[in-house]
Amino acid sequence: MNSNLQIISGKWRGKKLHLPPNARPTQNKARIALFNMLDGILATSDCRLATIWDAFAGSGAFGIEFLSRGAQKAIFTDTDAESIKTIKKNLAGLDAARAAVALTDATGAIKKYGADADIIFIDPPYAHPELGARFIEKLSAAAKPGAIIVWEMEKDFAPAPLPENLKILKDKTYGRARFLIISN
Predict the structure, then answer these.
(1) Helices in the chain by DSSP H: which ranges?
(2) Which residue in 14, 45, 50, 184 could disulfide with 118, CB within 3.0 to 4.6 Å?
(3) CB under 8 Å to 71, separation ≥6 — which residues?
(4) pLDDT in tens, 110-141
């Protein structure tokens, strides 16, 4: 599928990304704004040492962006086989040794990936916001201390209060997308 989605920074800046069928990617402008917010939050830590989990990966743009910026490792999970094929296509020719791709349910994989990830990006389908809420609830008990969780949701979705051990660092809306940046 032809797209305008691309890597916005790092060694692969400008690389065009493929989209899976029926994708709703985070637009370049919103990702730029999100990474600007994250740069301020992550200024005291080095993302080159980070393990990233792109939990509802779709095209894999978030995890690939972090790999482009030097992240140590990125894990991509999605339940859609076409998304997994697209992620592998987007990783082709890049340093894929630092990437793991799994066809699996993100919520079911929290025990496997949640405790090791430094930065976790969740972007469940806007049509199913309850997936994000369930994921956050379960992740709150498994995430490593200091993990950064980025939850993208439709701007009109009002999630239930977060578990007590999580706090919102930033809450910003860009077009249709709302980003909660959370830490424990």
Answers:
(1) 28-41, 61-68, 81-91, 110-113, 129-139
(2) 50
(3) 47, 48, 50, 51, 52, 63, 98, 119
(4) 999 999 999 999 999 888 888 999 999 999 99
Alpha carbon distance 95, 92 (integer Å): 8
DSSP symbols for 50-94: -EEEETT-TT-HHHHHHHHTT-SEEEEEES-HHHHHHHHHHHTTS
Residue with tokens 């086989």: 81
Overall pTM > 0.85: yes
Location of structure tokens 């077009």: 175
Please, what's the b/e burial string for 144-165 (b: 16 or more CB within 10 A of its CB; e: otherwise)? eeebbbbbbbeeeeeeeebeee
Asked whether the beta carbons of 115 and 144 are under 8 A apart, the reply is yes
Q: Which residue is associated with the tokens 């080159």?
A: 48
